[in-house]
Amino acid sequence: MSGVSLERGANFLDLAFDWFILVRCADSSGDTDLEQWNPTSGESKADQHARLGQKYASLGHRGRRPYAQRADNYQSGDQLPRPIDQVPHDLLTAHERKLNSTYAPVWLRTAYGRGTDARHQELLAAVENDLSDVLDGEDRLLDESTRYAFEDAPATAEGSNDVDASWRRVLAFAPVLIERIAGGLYADLNVPWTDPSLSPPSPSSPSPPSPSTLALGQKHFFVADAQAMLTGYLLWVHVDEFGGAVQRNRIQPAHLLTIAGRRATGMSLEEIIGWREVGRDGILEDFGVVEGYTNAGSWTPPE
Predict the structure, then answer these.
(1) What's the pLDDT score for residue 61?
(2) What angle do CA 242, 216, 248 make, to 5 degrees?
(3) Contact by Cβ (8 Å): 16, 179
(4) Residue 235 phi/psi, 5° resolution?
(5) What residues pair up with 109 in beta bridges, in sequence order?
(6) CA dist 257 to 211, 218, 260, Å?
(7) Is residue 43's pLDDT more than 80?
(8) Alpha helical stretches, state H, the chain
(9) What are the distances in angstroms from CA 289 to CA 47, 82, 255, 264?
C-alpha cells in the first residue's frame, strides 16, 4: 500500500481504548469478523469516536480487562490483530493522552456560545485557591470548542432535558474516568475475577449497592455546561464502572476544594453530599462559606 504509513502514532496502543478500536469484536453468534472502528461507516469520525467511547465505557471493568491486558503487555514488534493503518491514531490528542495516563478529576467545558469565553473565566476564577489544587494538575482542564461542544440544544436556567447525553460524550476523550484506580493505571489486571471490588453487584440485585460502592475506584468530574454558565453552578458527576451517573448535582466553583479535601480524608460519597438522596441536578449549597470567595452569580448571555 504505497503512501500509507503502517507505523503507529505517538503513544498509540498505550491505552486500553486504543486496543478496543483496533481489535475486531464478536457478535452473539461468535462471528469475529466485525470491526469496532469501521473505516467505511457512514458516521462522521467524531460521531463514531463518541459512540465507541460510550460503548467502551458500557463494558464495565471485566469487559475492558482484555484490552487493558493488551495495552499492558504490548511490546513494539508484536503481531497485531489487524493492520494498524485501518484505524485512526489521532482520536485522542497529545493533551488527552497525557490526561489519560494518570488519575485525577477533570474540568470539562461543553458550552461555547457567544459570551461564554469571558463567563467561563469567571467560573474558573471563582475556584478557591489554584485550579491545580482541585484537579491535581492544570492539564486536567478540557476546554476546546472543536472537540467538546457537546450540547446540541441550549439549556435553560431550569436545566436541559438531555444533560447526560451531553457530558457522557467526554468518556470518548477521557476513558480514564471509568478505568479502575488501585494504585496505578489498569491496576486491576491481576485482581481475581471473583473479587467483588472488581465488579460491584448490579443495582437490581436483592441488596443494591450504595452509591459509594458503585463509584468505588471511579473518578468524579466537573462540567461547565450551558446551565452552569447561566446559574454559576457547575455540574458535578460521579460515574459507575459502566459510565452511568451515580451522583449528579450542582455546586459552586468555590466549593471544589472543600470536596477535594473531604475525599482526601476518606469520606464516603454519602458523607460528602450530606447523606441526602443522591440527586439529579440537585443544588448543593450547604458546604459552608469559603472566606474570601463569593458564589458565582447568575449570568445573562449577550443579545
Answers:
(1) 79
(2) 65
(3) yes
(4) -85, 130
(5) 224
(6) 21, 18, 5
(7) yes
(8) 16-22, 45-58, 60-73, 94-99, 116-125, 131-135, 145-148, 163-167, 211-214, 226-231, 256-264, 269-272
(9) 42, 57, 9, 20
Candidates 200, 174, 172; CA nearest to 105 is 174
Rounded to whole angstroms, what are the CA distances from 28 to 22, 25, 265? 19, 10, 45
108, 167 in Cβ contact below 8 A?
A: yes
- Indicate if the pLDDT at residue 6 is higher than 50: no
Tell me: the pLDDT tens digits for 289-303? 666 667 888 999 998
Q: Which residues contact 177 (CB under 8 A, 6 or more apart)?
A: 106, 170, 171, 218, 219, 221, 239, 243
Task: Report the distance separating Cα 81 and Cα 23, nearest Å.
Answer: 6
Cα–Cα separations (whole angstroms), residue 134 to 22, 24, 107, 171, 302: 34, 39, 9, 20, 30
3-class DSSP state of 225: coil
CA distances from 171 to 164, 239, 241 (A): 12, 10, 11
